Amino acid sequence: LRLSVTIHECYPSLKQKVGGGGIYREKQFRDRKPPSCPAPSLLTAAADAGARFPELGRLAAPLRARAKGRGGRCQRSCLLVTNSNSPASGVASLPAFLAFIHCTAPRILLPAGPPRAGEHSLKQDIQNEKTELEALFKEAELATCSAELLLPLFKDTIEEISFENRGESLSNLLEKLTDNESENINLKNKVLEKETYIQELSSLFQNEKANALKASRFSQSVKVVHERLQSQIHKKEAENDKLKEHIKSLETQISEWNLQLKKSKYEAVAMKESSRQKTIALKKASKIYKQRIEHFTGDMENLTSQIREQEAKLSETVSACNAWKSHYEKIVIEKTELEVQIETMQKQIINLLEDLKKMEEHGKISCEEILRKLHSIEYENETLNLENTKLKSTLAALKDEIASVENELLELQEVEKQQKTLIEVYKTQIQKVQEAAEMVKSRCKNLLQENSLITKNKNKKLKKMRGQMESHLKELERVRDSLTAVEQRLQECQESLQHHKGRCADQAHTVDENHNLLTKLSLEEENYLIQLKCENLKQKLEQMDAENKELEKKLANQEECLKHSNLKFKEKSAEYTALARQLEAALEEGRQKVSEEIEKMSSRERALQVKIVDLENELRKKNEEQNQLVCKMNSKAQHQEVCLKEIQHSLEKSENQNESIKNYLQFLKTSYVTMFG
User: Fold this and answer.
1) What residue ranges carry the coiled-coil annotation (predicted)?
2) Whole-model pTM?
């Protein structure tokens, strides 16, 4: 009966297996002492029972060995001694032996309360639980084997026990049964609590699964966003390649323009040298012409003095001059023609000198304008080169940033559910940044268009300057032709003067010959004729003086006009210089504004790049945190699945064991009914 009670107590305790992981503790049944056998007489009772029933001693040997193997857990284990032979002691020792079997019965594992939060301790607890359950099953098997062997002996001993002791033992057994039933009720309540706890854990596990599914969906959305960003990056790379090609074409154009500028510089230098040489040659020619004119004036004065002397001589030789009047009149006509030619030549020389001065001034002005334009073109080319270098540096920085962004975007994988709002804000900020980048691109395009327009205008100006230079060259060629014609005329005049000098020498010789003839004429006629000639000569001299005064007035007026024109020219040149300075100042202001705008754009681009880098760092950190959380959730889900599978497996085993124990209890009940029925 004691063995049946202990097994009945073991049966509900095996249902205390609960899932979800936890630390199990051993619940040792209280070692109840039978009322007829106190604790000190346990060894003697066991010895008497072994003496009374030697078969019980042999069967209890494995139980005794098991009690020794527990390491002192059961302090009531004893050795069955087979020395006593009294039959009365056997009746009293039977309850003690049953108490010994009760104390050596297997201990049941019960849950120690709510499970711990540690994940790594679950596996260790489950393994310990498995080992303890296996030990319990082995002990239960040993107990069943020993009970099957002891049942026929129990029948024999029960027949010999008196009815008085039987009544007392039954009352004790009934009390113990009530206690065991109350304990079973408590254990059932605990089992129900554990089942509710298991349901809560399963609901939590389902919630975690739903969260994991949401996280996976969110990761898919993040992947889609990542693909979109990659497509945008590819588009930007294509645009950058186009910009690189455009910049390369601009660099080639700039190199061509530089070569053209160098050629134009060399041509301008050559033109300057040729113009200098021409001016030097013209100055020399003008000096020679002035010297020749002075020589001609000296010759004319000498001729006039000679003519006066000859007229004085001719006044003495009037009679001889009558024959030579016609010839003399011809000479006078030729003189007048020569004087007219000389005056015309002087006027032409003056006009040529004025034209030369104008050409020199115009050449100086054109050279100064060309130099200014060349300086402005050089300065603009330098600014363009600086801008191109800046653009190259910005492009290199953008390339590095794009590479860094690509490397960072490859690391983006998943994002937390709580940070969706932040990601939307980041998306809006990224759109703003893209709009700003598009604005920057549009401004760069506008700047490139402006540069192209500036270069076109420069080419047009250079073409105009070339046309002007060609026109100046044509005018200089015309001046050369005119100068050559003037030189030819001067040579002809010199030849005619030499011819007239020869004629004058011949006439002087004839006059000397005629003088001897005229000495024979009368003095009165000579005096009268001389007076007439003197009057004529005086009239001619007065006319010549009046003409000279008129010419002097004309020359003074021309000089005043020249001075006035020089003053106007100086004023206009000052105005032109002031306008040129204003244009240069305006150009410098425009360039400064352009440089300031470029600096502002670069600073904005840098700020935007810094913002993009910060946002990408934040996204990276949050993605890493989300990845860690997702990994933890996955590991927890896997661990929980493994734990649930192990718990299910252990529950199945426990159910099988419970069924086997139920069958065994039914067998015991049937045996009890058959025995006491």
Assistant:
1) 226-267, 293-503, 534-671
2) 0.20
